[in-house]
Design a protein that fits this description.
This protein is mainly alpha-helical and 410 residues long. The protein has 3 domains: 43 residues; 96 residues, Type II secretion system (T2SS), domain F (Receptor-associated Protein); 234 residues, Type II secretion system (T2SS), domain F (Receptor-associated Protein, Up-down Bundle). 74% of the residues lie in helices and 6% in strands. The longest helix is centred in the last third of the chain and has 57 residues.
């Protein structure tokens, strides 16, 4: 009886091995809907398939690695370096793909290689994967292929990706560190209230003396938390879920969030300056590649990382498309400092807007660096103070009756 060919609607990872066109042994991972389709795809790339089998599932759930934006940045740098060294495009993908630690990234790169061998341009192959390669990336690659300077533009893309990733990490660090420490502080406080304070409460019952008001308050908080902890957990869970839900689906909520973020001292400055740096770096990169300004501003808007700047840049795009100069459209948004507008004006008049925007990006990236360092220095004593008040306050509350009893005995 013939074996049924199993075809699913979902992509499945298959491990394969075989020989390439030169007869050398090769192996890898390919995603396909069935083993037959996997074999067919491999044959298209010139591989003589010896064995194909489904990739074993991990013992504890699906551990497929995600492809991060940082890995895309590294890939851009690797590809630029190889092309500049004279390595052919297809061979570059083969080398990078087979040498990658992330199986998902490896699979994607080898699939792109197969698309290129099948007749697609690099830009077309990348455009099939919009989750990882945005319009900016694809447009620049397309411009590089058409002008014959692909390796040069890939180098610029790599530099752009590296710098934007650096800014993202710094902003994330600035926002994450204090939040993480405060969360730990509140968790420790909750543990003390639920498990430690009741022990002291039992001890105090044997004193037969009136407890200090502060101690009574802490004991009351402990009793309430022990009885209503599920309400606290439920509220935190509901707030967290609602935040994520509306963050993904509600434009007004994102607008409110980003506007509020810009008003927070220091954090707002970091957010604003990082958005300006991304704006300048992205527009400079696309201008260098010869992408028309109106088209470039669409990608620039998405790269700013803030919905207020997104709306502002899209408004600039509309103004520029009607013939208005970029500098005047920037003024009308009210988002850009005078220095940035003046640099753009000089660039427009001198025909060197990409160079001027590069200088703006360098300046604001350095500003972000300094602000993140300052924020870290500012937050550390504040966090210590909060920890001291929360944890130290509980300890003092528990020991006050003991000190009071000792004084009475003395």
């Amino acid at each position: 009886m013939a074996k049924a060919i199993k075809i699913t609607n979902e992509q499945v990872d298959f491990l394969w091995n075989g020989t390439d066109k030169q007869g050398k042994k090769t192996a890898g991972i390919i995603s396909a809907k069935s083993e037959a389709i996997a074999r067919a795809e491999l044959r298209k790339t010139g591989v003589r398939v010896i064995k194909v089998k489904p990739k074993p599932k991990p013992l504890f759930g699906n551990r497929t690695q995600k492809i991060t934006s940082a890995e895309i940045a590294v890939f851009a740098r690797q590809l630029a370096t190889m092309l500049q060294a004279g390595v052919p495009l297809v061979q570059s993908f083969d080398i990078i793909g087979k040498g990658h630690d992330n199986a998902s990234m490896s699979t994607m790169l080898l699939a792109i290689k197969a698309d290129i061998e099948g007749g697609d341009t690099l830009a077309q192959a990348l455009a099939k994967r919009p989750l990882y390669f945005d319009d900016l990336f694809c447009n620049l690659v397309d411009a590089g292929e058409q002008s014959g300077v692909l390796e040069g533009l890939l180098d610029k893309i790599a530099t752009y990706k590296e710098k934007t990733e650096s800014i993202k990490k710094k902003v994330k660090k600035a926002l994450t560190y204090p939040i993480a420490v405060l969360v730990v502080a509140f968790v420790v406080t909750a543990i003390l209230l639920v498990f430690v304070v009741p022990v002291f409460e039992d001890l105090f019952k044997g004193f037969g003396a009136d407890l200090p008001a502060f101690t009574k308050m802490v004991i009351a908080m402990s009793r309430w938390l022990q009885e209503w902890w599920w309400v606290v957990v439920g509220v935190i869970g509901a707030v967290g879920y609602s935040f994520v839900y509306f963050k993904k689906r509600s434009r007004p909520f994102n607008h409110f969030l980003d506007r509020t973020l810009l008003k927070i001292p220091v954090v707002g400055m970091i957010t604003e300056k990082s958005a300006i740096a991304r704006f300048a770096r992205t527009l400079s990169t696309m201008s260098t590649a010869g992408v028309p300004l109106v088209e470039a501003l669409v990608s620039v808007a998405g790269a700013c990382g803030n919905i207020l700047f997104y709306d502002g840049v899209m408004k600039m795009r509309d103004d520029v498309s009607t013939g208005q100069q970029l500098q005047f459209s920037m003024i009308q948004t009210g988002l850009f400092p005078n220095m940035v507008v003046q640099m753009v004006a000089i660039g427009e008049e001198s025909g060197s807007i990409d160079a001027m925007l590069d200088k703006v990006a360098d300046f604001y990236e350095e500003e972000v660096d300094n602000l993140v360092d300052n924020l870290s220095s500012l937050m550390e004593p504040m966090i210590m103070a909060v920890l001291g008040v929360l944890v130290g306050g509980l300890i003092v509350a528990m020991y006050l009756p003991i000190f009071k009893l000792g004084a009475a005995v003395g």
